[in-house]
Amino acid sequence: MGTTWELDFYSRPILDENQKKVWELLLCESPKDSRTKVDSLFRYAQYCPSTEVNSAWLRTAIQEAISKAGEAPTRIRFFRRQMNNMITKACQDSGIPAQSSRRILVLHQWLQQRMDEVYPQEPGYQGGSNPSVRLDAPVPQRLPDALELENWAFVRLTAKDFLDMPEWEIGFGEGFPLELAQISDDTPISGVLIFSSRSLPLAAWMSGLELGYLKFDQSEGGRLLLETGATESWIVANIRNSQVINEAKNFEVAKQSANGVHFIGVQANPQSESFAGFWLLQEVTLP
Questions:
Q1: CATH T-level fold of 4-121
Q2: Which tens digits make up the pLDDT trace of 5-44?
Q3: Could you write out the three-class secondary structure of 18-87?
């Protein structure tokens, strides 16, 4: 199956001797499932002078990281849309597919840790935020007609239930260790189960979207949205029933109480003991 890496290449709140922003490449391995030990995941960091910010420098640095890791990843995820062209070219020149994604959970935690603990210790550190260029939010799209949902429901598990996730019968999906979210084993985890006679084609389609997170949008009466890639948003369901709207609001409250953790599953019917698809998700605030 190979490994997936997460990548960030951007300026940091550090000035060099010429009062120019220092850039940095961060590369880290994505966890394969809920039992992965976070401390065992590969990580690579390298600063880049502002005068050398280009795809050639980035390609060389990626190749150095591969040399240190001992093997190349099968794909690389990145979240900064404004860096799309440079990152995509550097990855392609290294022979690795690049995918824009908001599923960069290890990278997100690592970047936050470096913002708090590493950069303030560097000469030339400039306090305050180091924001990305903000881009417009994506316009939600309808699901393809062939994949319209037949039935779905809000459900709830606890964090400890996901320890056995690698043993579940799942066609398509992905998990991550909940230590990333820093929640207790008894924390309630809310999610959505989708039931469809076309569960396998639906799960296969979803597996190619780089799933980010689910959210309840109270506009347009009420909509359950699936955020994917770096720029895509899909309308999973329009909600008009007041009872279901309350369930959706409770889903959002539970998600926030679980530090953004939630899930989405796809099954043929409510009696099924297997999943055509199952993804453990976390909504995080990207810089």
A1: Nucleotidyltransferase; domain 5 (3.30.420)
A2: 999 999 999 999 999 999 999 999 999 888 899 999 999 9
A3: CCCEEEEEEEEECCCCCCCCHHHCCEEEEEECHHHCCHHHHHHHHHHHHHHHCCCCCEEEECCHHHHHHH
